[in-house]
Amino acid sequence: MKESYPENYCDSSGDITDCQDSLRSMLDQSESFSQYKDLLGKSNADHAFWLPLLPHYVKNQSVALVIDDTDGNISCKLAPHFLTVIAIHSDVNALMKVKREALKKSVDNVIPVQADLSKPLPIAAEAVSLVILLHVSNSRSFQSEMSVCDRYRIFVANSKALLSLNGSLVIIDNNAQNYRDWLHNLHGVSRDKELNGVPVKRLKRILSCQQYSIIDKYIGDFYYTSSFMPLPVFVKNGSLGDLSVYCMSAFYKIKQYIKHRFLPSNLWPSFMLIASRVSHKRVIDEVIESERIGVMLNWGVGRVVVKKIVAGNSGVTILIVGPEDENDRDIVVRHPRTSEGLMAVQRNADALKALSNEIFSGFVPRLYVDKVQESKGYIIEEKIRGKELDGFGEKAELMIMQSCELFIDMQMNGVKNRAFDEILINQFIVGAISPLAALCDDDVKPLLSIIGEFLFGAFKDKNIPFVRSHGDYKLGNILFLDDGQLGGIIDWDMSEKNGMPLLDIYTLILYRISSETGQSLADVYKNILLPGKTDVFYKDLIEMACAKYALPTELVFPLKCLFWLTHLRDRVSSGLKSHPDFARENIKEVLIRMIEAIDIQENNNSNNKPY
User: Fold this and answer.
1) Among 20-29, 130-139, 363-372, 555-564, which stretch is predicted with the lowest mean pLDDT?
2) Number of folded domains in the chain?
3) Dihedral sign, Cα of residue 135, residue 138, residue 144, residue 150
4) What are the tens digits of pLDDT across the range 167-196?
5) Which residues contact 251 (CB under 8 A, 6 or more apart)?
6) Residue 16 parent element (H or E)
7) What's the predicted TM-score (pTM) here?
8) Which of 121, 123, 489, 588 is deepest in the core (most CB within 10 A)?
9) How many helices and strands, by DSSP H and E, does the chain display?
10) End of a domain among 338, 363, 382?
11) Which residues contact 395 (CB under 8 A, 6 or more apart)?
């Protein structure tokens, strides 16, 4: 094979060297890859994802106050939106971390301040537009013997004295202990500690007593965790209570039912409250009103609310917005928070425009507004009807099979058959291997070369059907109607007009088996998918896809090998790739298994289907 893999190749998602430098302190602390992933997750968590829910603050006029921002991450994320961000903490060492983080990110308007939150803060009255507190339960800036409710009471009183009249208070906290206690008491299980109240209910009462008249409550749409690092997905209590999709698992239905009952929702593991004393227009209101979406969708004069807010993994805030009393006319607003997010939103908008003229048009969201290129870019798109599949069994498998058949039929409507020439070899094979070679030690690069040689020989001059790929075709992006039929496919920011066949199907299977078994994606791939040890349903799914794509049997296994390389290239952050154990666990160990599978494959009878 003539192609070479340059050792100085840089991942397009970010410069690996810079990434290693910026994360070196975290690497020094980590004893394992799993611990490092936890540290990286905490570092990358962007709790400023709720900014569109706040008034439209103007830089050079507003001050934000952040409580217990241990590593400075939140303060630095808020810095571009405010004249000054004050980071409060009682621990000097923690404040030094904030200072170092601001220096590292070239942020000059973050001011660390040491203070005891049990006492009035040394800040001028009514000088602050935003106060944010994360996890008062574990805050070290209060006296340790104080109860949670006493901490809330003092914090709210101190905040009120500082906030301007049109300021906002954001509280994100964790009820995990109360939730566990409530579940155990519900089932008659004796606990050492009795249920000690309902913090959200009490907190709302405390806020009301302090004359906060507008209090929006969101609860975490995820499982409880022992630490306070929940996935940033929050649902407005009571707004998304449709349980009619028969395919949902019993556990999911119970979870949704509990979430929308008054008492348990006040005990839900994680919550977010946004409180204000006066009514004001939020950033999201200005976006919607400026585009006259309400007129277009006939929203009427009722209250419009944000029903769900998600901090996407690619630096995008996703908001589900619509009339408070119905869900049929909701919209999706995508706000980029980072440069990476801006590119993702742009790719999604471009794909939706292209797909509106293709056979996919009935199954993808309509793009209402595209303002990505403006200074505060965003897009507004249709919210597709349907729900995610949250269940297993025969009904779920039937729905998956039927939806995949329809998806492939739509792909094949615009198929372009091409001989796999030198240009395509460089695009798909070299383009997948080169970014990974830059992450590997010298002993791994020969393994990549072996895989490259195999793929080169397998695809060279073969006739391949190139199709419109989704790029992230997993069940979270596939929506089903009440009758089990395909409702739509969302999140097209990784789509390619001319993509390789079968890779989308492998993506669905990989994530589905990982969800079923609890195994990591790498373990699922090397132990189940690669050697063809999937159950009968997944074998049938692959066989159906191959028949519809009209793929020669000999290309199925090479596509399975190429799939893992593109998966690592496209879906793993450069932060994770910079850890030395990443290459060992996800590249070296998998490549060894892949080469073993290649040897077995080449020795197999030609009639043995590699499903």
Assistant:
1) 20-29
2) 3
3) positive
4) 899 988 766 555 566 556 655 555 555 444
5) none
6) helix 16-22
7) 0.82
8) 489
9) 24, 19
10) 382
11) 246, 247, 484
